[in-house]
């Protein structure tokens, strides 16, 4: 965070990494973890830089200002302890580093098991999925389709508007969108679509934490948000939760009209 500095946020939470996550991260075992997240409001990193982050001696700094061994060492320490490290960054938007370490086993707390896919909540609604990361979009689409949803995919906000020229907005029940995307942000897309369809439900997904997002003012407090990386169970449950809230609202409106 050069020049004027910025905000550094450190957070911890419990997390459950399921088999859907481990299929994308082969060196990771499914199970309960403790997550440590460090977020900044700095300059962020390009996709090209992110691909080389953990390579020894790779650095974007000038000679004499860094060896490129810091993240490589951090990666090694996390791996030695059976954990995994995951980085989310956008140019000009800051960076979030998430470290997952296996949760200590004990007799006081029961081990948490990943929910089998067949036990996940199901639905039949139509979801417009907008995500610029191909792997994340593919995973989310597979999980939702397996649970009975109709999924329409788009790689960014502008592409989503193009897709809606072939699919009527009235047929969309839920907008599932990344917060930060090229060409048009998830919030800008949601604001435009909810003007056209006020009862459209919106669920945001992001690699940034709640505090990182609120400190930047990207989303309003209390907004529906699912954090990356998410498990199949977390995605299915959150989507169902948002859609059920919509259903309860519609039922309440119909009840009020009947009373009138």
Describe this structure in words.
This protein has helices at residues 19-24, 47-50, 70-80, 134-146, 157-163, 186-196, 210-216, 232-259; strands spanning 9-17, 31-39, 84-90, 94-102, 126-130, 150-154, 174-178, 201-206, 225-227. It is globular and about 55 Å long. It contains eight helices and nine strands. Strand 5, helix 4 and strand 6 form a beta-alpha-beta unit. Helix content is 33%, strand content 22%. The chain has 260 residues and is an alpha/beta fold. Strands 6-5-7-8-9 form a five-stranded parallel sheet, with helices on both faces. A four-stranded antiparallel sheet has the order 1-2-4-3.
Largest sheet: 5 strands, parallel
Oligomer: single chain
Coarse shape:
globular
Distance between the termini: 58 Å
Helix content: 25-40%
Q: DSSP strand (E) fraction?
A: 15-25%
Number of helices: 8
Spatial arrangement of strands, main beta sheet? 6-5-7-8-9
Number of strands: 9
Contiguous runs where pLDDT drops below 50 for at least 5 residues: none
Mean pLDDT, all residues: 83
User: Structural class of the helix and strand makeup?
Assistant: alpha/beta
Order of helices and strands: EHEHHEEEHEHEHEHEH
Cα-atom radius of gyration:
20 Å
């Amino acid at each position: 965070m050069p020049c004027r500095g910025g905000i550094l946020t450190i957070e911890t939470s419990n997390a459950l990494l399921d088999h859907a996550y481990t299929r994308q991260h082969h060196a990771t075992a499914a199970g309960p973890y403790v997550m440590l997240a460090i977020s900044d409001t700095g300059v962020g990193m390009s996709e090209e830089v992110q691909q080389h982050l953990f390579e020894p001696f790779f650095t974007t700094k000038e000679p004499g200002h860094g060896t490129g061994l810091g993240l490589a060492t951090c990666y090694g320490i996390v791996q030695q302890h059976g954990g995994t490290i995951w980085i989310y960054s956008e140019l000009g938007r800051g960076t979030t580093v998430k470290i997952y370490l296996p949760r200590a086993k004990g007799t006081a707390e029961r081990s948490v098991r990943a929910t089998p896919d067949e036990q996940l909540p199901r639905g039949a609604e139509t979801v417009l999925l907008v995500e610029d990361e191909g792997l994340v979009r593919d995973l989310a689409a597979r999980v939702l389709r397996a649970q009975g949803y109709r999924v329409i995919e788009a790689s960014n906000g502008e592409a989503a508007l193009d897709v809606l020229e072939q699919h009527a907005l009235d047929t969309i029940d839920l907008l599932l969108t990344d917060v930060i995307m090229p060409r048009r942000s998830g919030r800008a897309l949601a604001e435009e679509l909810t003007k056209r369809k006020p009862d459209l439900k919106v669920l945001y997904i992001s690699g940034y934490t709640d505090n990182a997002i609120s400190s930047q003012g990207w989303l309003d407090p209390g907004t529906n948000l699912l954090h990356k990386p998410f498990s199949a169970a977390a995605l299915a449950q959150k989507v169902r939760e948002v859609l059920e809230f919509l259903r309860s609202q519609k039922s309440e409106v119909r009840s009020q009209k009947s009373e009138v």
